[in-house]
Amino acid sequence: MGIWGYLAILIGLWYLVKFLWPPAKRKNILVVLGSGGHTTEMTTYLKKLDFSLVENVDFICAEDDKVSKEKFRLHFLNRGRLYEIFRSRKVGQSYISSVFTTLYSFIPAIFLVLKLRPDLIVTNGPGTALPVCYSGFILRLLRISRTKIVFIESFCRVRTLSLAGRLIYPITEQFYVQWEYLQRDNPKCRYIGLLV
Amino acid sequence: MSVFVTVGTTKFEELIKAIDTDEVLEALRDQGLTKVLCQIGNGEFTPESEFFRFSPSLDEFMENADLIISHAGAGSILEALRKNKKLIVVVNQKLMDNHQLEIAKELSDRNHLIMCENPDELSSAVRKLETAEIKPLPPSNTQELMQEIVDLLN
User: Fold this and answer.
1) What is the chain A residue with the closest CA to B101?
2) Which of B75, B141, B153 is the closest to A194 by Cβ?
3) CB contact under 8 A, A54 and B75
4) What angle do the packed helices A66-75 and A36-46 form, to 10 degrees?
5) Residue B69: beta bridge partners?
6) Apex CA A194: angle with CA B105 and CA A35, to 5°?
7) pLDDT at residue B66, as a whole number
8) Is residue A8 predicted with pLDDT exceeding 70?
9) The pLDDT of residue A23 is above 80
10) How far is CA B122 from the centre of its chain?
11) What are the transmembrane regions (chain A) (predicted)?
12) pLDDT number for residue B32
């Protein structure tokens, strides 16, 4: 089988994916809940969201993230569904092994994003944000979804971006920061004052 | 008037010990702060003043205080400043979390709070309250953020 054969299979697969998981008709936001203080900040932002303006909101967090699950239960139980996925990097894990677990965590992330087909992924890192955002980006490149990515950097990051922020920065539609220094050093950042 | 001291989810023995010294208590009394309540976490040292270990929410304690003395945790700092309370932040050198230090330093440079690099400096920080011009934290713009996100969606 030559290159045309493979190409035909790929195109077939592409149609199959689009057919098996048709895009949602309604506008979809996927919120990635990070961990600890990140989830607290995300909760603060979402309390100001008028949920009546958004047709559907889904939440995602790491399977072992008790804080995020509790915050979801307290504040957003009636607002949407919570999906749990494999954690990409545990606190204290070495960088080398975290490279492998992050790669591995792409598998459940890409299937979930494929299923949800979010129009917008909103995250402030870290945890599962990396595989989820890159899955959204890849599916957008493949024209399977229309996913745009919004990253909101923590109020704690005054002069340097977080690791998750730096990694996701290149694929964001909008990247919010809360201190003007960051906008000066990273031209794509948007600063509209404090957000917490 | 009353002071609320908080160490967050672990412990900060040096801070609670510093609160318990005559030097700091006197500095507080000179400011009219006679009632002291400490949240001490799982620290071993227990102060002479009133204390408790943990509480699901510190909201009420912060609300009732005229001055808050806190560890450098971003969550506590934010909670206190959003209640427009006078705030002294004491850095725990043992933890050396640079980002927490960074945010405390920035807010201190902008006169939103008084920062102590060391519990030994606590009494002088309390005395600074008299003359320091503490400015309230600018309001948050979360409403606009959420509006922009909804606009991006549609």
Assistant:
1) A156
2) B141
3) no
4) 20
5) B5, B88
6) 80
7) 97
8) yes
9) no
10) 12
11) 6-21, 95-114, 120-142
12) 95
Q: Give yes or no for residue A88 having a pLDDT over 60.
A: no
**Residue A159 pairs with which residues in a beta bridge?**
none
CB distance from B143 to chain A under 8 Å?
Answer: yes
Q: Which residues pair with A38 in a beta bridge?
A: none
Find the CATH number of the domain harbouring A175.
3.40.50.2000
Give the span between the Cα atoms of A117 and A60, in whole angstroms: 13
Half-sphere exposure of B84 (CA within 13 A, CB side): 4
- The ipTM of this complex is 0.89
pLDDT digits (tens, 9 = 90+) for B50-97: 999 999 899 999 999 999 999 999 999 999 999 999 999 999 988 766
Instruction: Return the structure tokens found at A160.
Output: 């340097």
Residue A16: phi and psi, rounded to 5, are -65, -45
Please check whether residue A174 lies inside any domain of the structure.
yes
Q: How far is B140 from chain A (nearest CA, A)?
A: 5
If you search the block for the tokens 């990097």, which residue do you land on?
A89
Q: How many residues are recorded in chain A?
A: 196
Q: Which domains does chain B have, with CATH numbers?
A: 2-153 (3.40.50.2000)
Tell me how far apart the alpha carbons of residues A11 and A9 are, in angstroms, rounded to a whole number: 5
CB atoms within 10 A of CB B71: 24
Whole domain around residue A103: which residue ranges? 23-191
Residues paired with A80 in a beta bridge: A57
How high is the pLDDT of residue B88?
A: 98
Mind telling me how many Å the CA of A45 is from chain B's nearest CA?
6
pLDDT per residue as tens digits for the range A140-196: 999 989 999 999 999 999 999 999 999 999 999 999 999 999 999 999 999 999 999
Alpha carbon distance B61, B37 (integer Å): 9
Cβ–Cβ < 8 Å for A167, A131: no
Sequence-distant (≥ 6) Cβ neighbours of residue A23 within 8 angstroms = A117, A145, A146
For B110-143, the pLDDT digits (tens) are 999 999 999 999 999 999 998 999 999 999 999 9
Residue with tokens 């620290």: B43
